[in-house]
Amino acid sequence: xxxQTAEYALRAIVYLADQNxxxxxxxxxxxxxxxxxxxxxxxxxxLSRARLVNSQRGLRGGFTLSSGSDEMxxxxxxxAVDPIRRFPExxxxxxxxxxxxxxxxxxxxxxxxVVEEMFGDTTVAELLSVPRSRKPLCRFPAVPDATV
Length: 148
Description:
The chain has 6 helices and 2 strands, in the order H-H-H-E-E-H-H-H. It has a two-stranded antiparallel sheet. Helix content is 45%, strand content 5%. By secondary structure, the protein is mainly alpha-helical. The protein has helices spanning 4-17, 26-33, 37-49, 74-81, 103-120, 124-128, and strands spanning 53-56, 62-65. It is elongated, with a radius of gyration of 18 Å.
């Protein structure tokens, strides 16, 4: 449904949102989110270019969210790194089809529209508003919970 890059971006953002504004380095984010550090560095660059995260160099540097988790949507994050593919016209370039999609591409576009709507209506804060033992990303926070 979404690319691995988009999933990695979501993992990073959700983790940062749970850090109370404390900067985290690429290495720290990679360790907790189980994303390869080299790949994550490129993902974080994309998120920074989209102004979803702030980056600060130096001893106390790292990444933080640029806005509150209650303002940032899943759709913004996905679109920053690998936008959801829509079909405004025939993806095969058949001139006769133009903007009239065949049944297959119409269904694919309809499904993408539903995903866009759902992602646009979901904030990062909503993803984190669950009991601590059910936080997203399975293993994060990295501290094991004895009650699970």
